[in-house]
Specification:
Layout lengths: L1 H5 L2 E10 L2 E12 L3 E7 L5 H9 L8 E3 L9 H4 L3 E4 L11 H9 L7 H14 L15 H14 L4 E5 L7 H18 L2 E5 L3 H7 L2 E6 L2 E7 H4 L2 H8 L1 E7 L5 E8 L1
Parallel strand pairs: 3-7, 3-8, 5-6, 6-7
Antiparallel strand pairs: 1-2, 1-4, 8-9, 10-11
Helix pairs in contact: 4-5, 4-6, 5-6
Bound molecules: adenosine-5'-diphosphate and magnesium ion.
Keywords: ATP-binding, Nucleotide-binding
Protein name: ABC transporter ATP-binding protein
Organism: Acetobacter nitrogenifigens DSM 23921 = NBRC 105050
Length: 261
C-alpha cells in the first residue's frame, strides 16, 4: 500500500492558459494509485482535453506533475514518453501503413527485446482488442472505429505507467465500448498502470472506473471515488441536468437523466 502511494500520479495545483486566456485554474489531480482507472468528466469545453494534454507533457502547465518521486513535469518529451502514453481525441490518421506495423513502431521506443517477441506481443494486443484480423490491413482501409482500436493498441504497446486516453470510445459500437473498458480494467490492474480516461458516458464511468475528476469551466467540481463524484448535485452543477442514481436489478448503480435543470 505504501509503495502504491509512493508510485502515484499527483499534479497541481495546475494553471494552464492558451495565450492570455486561462483555461484551467488551480486544478489538482490525485494521488492516483497504480492499478486504478480514473474517469475525467465534464461538459464540452470544460478543459478535459487540456488537462490530459498537460499531464502528457504536450501542453505547458504551471505547477508540478509527478509520478511517485519522478518529476514528470521537468522531464524532456522523449524521457516523459517512457512513462506516459497519450491517445488524442482525434482518430489516428488514415495513413498507408499496416496496423501491425504501427503497433511495432509504437513499441520500439523502450522495448529492447528481440523482434519476434515484439511481433508476438503486438499480435497479442491486437487480439485482445478483437482486431487481430486487421493486423495486415492498412490504416487507410479501416473504419473510424477500427482506427480508434488501432490507436489504443499503439498506446498499450508503449507499456506506459500512465495511460492517458481522450474519449477512446467515441467511435466504437456498444459491444466494443464494453470490451475496451473491460480490457482497460484488466490491463490497468495487471500492469499496475495509472489510467485516466475522458468519458462522455457517465453510466460507463460509474460502473467501470474507480475514481473520477469532474471539471466545469476549468475548475474541479468534485474528485474522488466515482460514486461520490457522479451525484445528482454535481451533475447539476457541471452539466446543468437533473439526474438520479438508482440501484439497478444487478445491484449496481445506474444513472437516469430526467432532463435539463
Ligand atoms: N489550441 C487551443 N487554442 C485556444 N483555445 C483552446 C485550444 N484548445 C482548447 N481551447 C479552449 O480551452 C477550453 C477547454 O477546451 P478543451 O480542453 O478542449 O475542453 P474539453 O476537452 O473538456 O471539451 C475551451 O474553451 C477551448 O475553446
Ligand atoms: Mg476534449
Amino acid at each position: 500500500m505504501r509503495e502504491a502511494i509512493q508510485d502515484s500520479l499527483t499534479a497541481g495545483p495546475l494553471t494552464i492558459s492558451y495565450g492570455r486566456r486561462r483555461i484551467l485554474d488551480g486544478v489538482t489531480v490525485g494521488p492516483l494509485p497504480p492499478g486504478s482507472i480514473t474517469a475525467l468528466l465534464g461538459a464540452n469545453g470544460s478543459g478535459k482535453s487540456t488537462l490530459l494534454r498537460a499531464l502528457a507533457g504536450l501542453k505547458a502547465a504551471d505547477g508540478a506533475i509527478s509520478l511517485g518521486d519522478i518529476p514528470l513535469g521537468a522531464l524532456a518529451p522523449p524521457e516523459r514518453a517512457r512513462y506516459c502514453a497519450y491517445m488524442p481525441q482525434t482518430l489516428p490518421p488514415p495513413i498507408r501503413m499496416q496496423t501491425l506495423e504501427t503497433v511495432l513502431v509504437a513499441m520500439r521506443t523502450d522495448n529492447r527485446s528481440r523482434k519476434s517477441n515484439h511481433i508476438a506481443q503486438a499480435l497479442k494486443i491486437l487480439s485482445d482488442l478483437g482486431i487481430a484480423s486487421l493486423a495486415h490491413h492498412y490504416l487507410d482501409e479501416l473504419s473510424g472505429g477500427q482506427r480508434q482500436l488501432a490507436g489504443l493498441a499503439q498506446a498499450l504497446a508503449r507499456s506506459p505507467r500512465v495511460l492517458l486516453l481522450d474519449e477512446p470510445l467515441s467511435a466504437l459500437d456498444l459491444r466494443h465500448q464494453l470490451e475496451v473498458m473491460d480490457l482497460l480494467r484488466d490491463e490497468t490492474a495487471s500492469r499496475g498502470m495509472i489510467t485516466i480516461i475522458v468519458l462522455h458516458d457517465l453510466g460507463v464511468a460509474l460502473r467501470r472506473s474507480d475514481q473520477a475528476i469532474l471539471l466545469a469551466e476549468g475548475h474541479v467540481v468534485s474528485a474522488g471515488p466515482v460514486n461520490q463524484v457522479v451525484t445528482p448535485e454535481h451533475l447539476r452543477r457541471a452539466f446543468g441536468v437533473e439526474a438520479r442514481i438508482e440501484i439497478s436489478s444487478d445491484g449496481r448503480p445506474m444513472l437516469l437523466v430526467d432532463g435539463v435543470a
